Amino acid sequence: MSERSATDESSVEMRIMHQRLCGVSFLIMSSLVKLNQDPAFNKLLFLAFKKFQDQKTGTFMNKAGKAAFIFARGGSKGIPGKNVIDLGGVPLIGHTIRAAHYAGIFDRIIVSTDCHRIAEVARSEGAEVPFIRPSEIAGDTAQIGDAVIHALSALRSTGYIPDIYTVLYPTSPFVSPGLIRDVVGRVHRESCVSKTVRRISPQQKRIFQRHGKNRIRPIYQRNAPVPEWYRPIGLCEAYRYGDRMAGVPARRIFSFKVVRDPVQLHDIDTPEDLEKARRIITENRFPCLPPIPGFEKRAL
């Protein structure tokens, strides 16, 4: 092994070690927040954690060229005004904006929306809204890929091209800064597309394959080993773009982060989901992040 390759391998191992250290420290901090009810103490705790993060990992993954995109359209029908509705004293979209900020790895946090009210609240929480998304790509049948291409094209016209961009959603308000760092860190280290997935358990006995001309049989036989099944979830996704035109990924190597925490997996789509999210907060199962410094006044 050459001296250079040995150095590169050592550098990767150090990055992984530091990220794991930050992950453990976040779990410790979250436990302390759950045990303590003093907002001022919790804010100091988060700021101390962020400083620790920067000291441990800032050398390896700086903010330059990394953008967080949060997509929030205004036409929610299940919960009118969902993306700015109150959740624990914070607008729903505010939780995701704060998580992106406290991840400490983005030079820009950008909200893409067709709604001026959402834009106002997003700015009050510390995000940028440099453009309003056209209504043609903000309806019920709109594809998120079209919104991504629009956002990248709009930024490129201003001379900004992120090397790595992350896709986040306000309907997943319990995504943690540590999870965001993990997903983006995979792209930073491995030059891949990085996505979150969850394990699923399909009804194996109901899946059949053809056996002979007029017969079928179960795909999985009794006592046979069953493979693990996973489904992508829209919790956090990260991509790397080269100098290609917007919307065309430069790499197609995938890395998957398995998420098992039921709190982080909680998605808000119905009034029942919203009530469950409120119970999660009142039961102290999720440590609400403090406002971004300079944006303490919220526009609820």
Structural topology:
Elements: H1 3-35, H2 39-57, E1 66-71, E2 86-87, E3 90-91, H3 92-103, E4 108-112, H4 116-124, H5 144-156, E5 164-168, H6 177-190, E6 193-200, E7 208-210, E8 216-218, E9 229-240, E10 254-258, H7 262-265, H8 271-282
Parallel strand pairs: 1-4, 1-5, 6-10
Antiparallel strand pairs: 2-3, 5-9, 6-9, 7-8
Helix pairs in contact: 1-2, 1-6, 3-6
Task: Tell me what the structure shows.
- This protein is of the alpha/beta class and 300 residues long.
- It folds into 2 domains: 60 residues; 216 residues, Spore Coat Polysaccharide Biosynthesis Protein SpsA, Chain A (Alpha-Beta Complex), CATH 3.90.550.
- 39% of the residues lie in helices and 17% in strands.
- The strands form 3 sheets. Strands 4-1-5-9-6-10 form a 6-stranded mixed sheet, with helices on both faces. The protein has a two-stranded antiparallel ribbon with strand order 2-3. It has a two-stranded antiparallel sheet with strand order 7-8.
- Strand 2 and strand 3 form a beta hairpin.
- Helix 1 runs antiparallel to helix 2 and helix 3 packs across helix 6.
- The protein is globular.
